[in-house]
Amino acid sequence: MSRNLLLISTSTTHGTGYLEHAESEIKELLKGKSSLLFIPFARPNGISHADYTAKAREAFEKWGISVTGVHEHDNPVKAVNEAEAVFIGGGNTFLLLKQLYANKLVEPLKERVRKGMPYIGTSAGTNVAGKTIGTTNDMPIVHPKTLDALELVPFNINPHYLDPIPDSTHMGETRETRILEFHGHNRQPVVGLREGSMLRVQSDKIELKGPLTARVFLQGQKPMEFAPSDDITFLLEAY
Q: What class of enzyme is it (predicted)?
């Protein structure tokens, strides 16, 4: 599979503008491309598809990439099939996946990515790149017909991964606890991506980008920490 992916935990980190923290990785991914198709389906309210697309357009046009929203096309499937690259932004993962199925975009996206089309995801857009959306932090405000996602990688991702706060008196479940519960019923690995972190996937190689480590969960094993310099390509074969 000629995967060419950038899977980002979040679109904005503290003190940076929209996508600024991932600028160098985005530019590298889109080298030689001049246009991008944006899929704004994840936002449940507060911002229209048009306004969300305008926000993405403002960021990418500074880097010489023109942007159209998939909702601007009469035929969304045709738009995906003809796109130079695709970016799926954040919001609610359940709503996003439901809309991808409703617009019949799941299989076309899989097929284009298999053939090497660059794919960028942030937050919900990163969640749907995994095997399922079973490790999203979002509430199921709508019900997609299945939790099966795009399966661009054979593992799940937990964007916005949070560590327990030292000396906190909070007695509720941690993010780690929730992922361990997931592994009581599911086999695939889970990557906890902290804010500012991203996965660069090229064919059969994975690099962790950003300043922080990532927490990797394998069923039945203790969670592991991997630094950006570490090789985590084993995740493509771990399931």
A: hydrolase
Within 13 A of 114's CA, how many CA atoms are on the CB side? 10
Distances (CA, A) of 93 to 17, 88, 210: 22, 11, 23
Q: What is the CA radius of gyration of the chain?
A: 17
Q: SS3 of 4, please?
A: strand
- Annotated domain spans of the chain: 4-236
Note the pLDDT tens digit of each residue in 220-229: 999 999 999 8
**Is 160 tagged catalytic?**
yes
Which residues are registered as beta bridge partners of 120? Answer: 6, 87
Tokens of 91: 């919001």
**C-beta of residue 3 within 8 angstroms of C-beta of residue 201:** yes
**Tokens at 77, concatenated:** 């499937």
Q: Annotated catalytic, 138?
A: yes
Per residue in 187-239, pLDDT tens? 999 999 999 999 999 989 999 999 999 999 999 999 999 999 888 999 999 77
Which CATH number applies to 4-236? 3.40.50.880
The H or E element spanning position 51 is helix 49-61
- The pTM (predicted TM-score) of the whole model is 0.95
Is-catalytic flag, 49? no
From the candidates 9, 11, 123, 197, which is the catalytic residue? 123
Catalytic residue among 160, 183, 204, 231: 160
**Residue 36: phi, psi to the nearest 5?**
-150, 145
